[in-house]
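Changelog-adjacent note: as of this version, every example in the card shows the full chain rather than a window. The one below runs 105 residues end to end.
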Amino acid sequence: MSKDKPLWITGCPLCEAFTNPDESIKLYWPESIEEIKNSEFIIIECQSKKIPRLIYRDHIPNVLSESWGRMLYRSRKIFGNDIKLNISSDFIRDHFNCYVIKNEY
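Full-length structure tokens:
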């Protein structure tokens, strides 16, 4: 997907996070709400689980390895090296999203 033309679907709550961000939700990445529309992904606090949730910009079910690498890198810069990205299908399966979780060894 091109960063210039994101694929957003009307009515998708994850797409809404980019097109109409809720200023009351805790934002981990990008650093300001004004940057959300231009970001490849965002990391916000999940309202129900109260843990960081990473949401990819485009309304697609999977991401390329390059995008996965950038998301993992940024998550580790913010939360430390002892995290993993836990892909979740408990929400919207056709829009890539995952949780940032501390590794349990």
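Structural remarks: The beta strands are 27-29, 41-45, 52-56, 83-87, 97-102.
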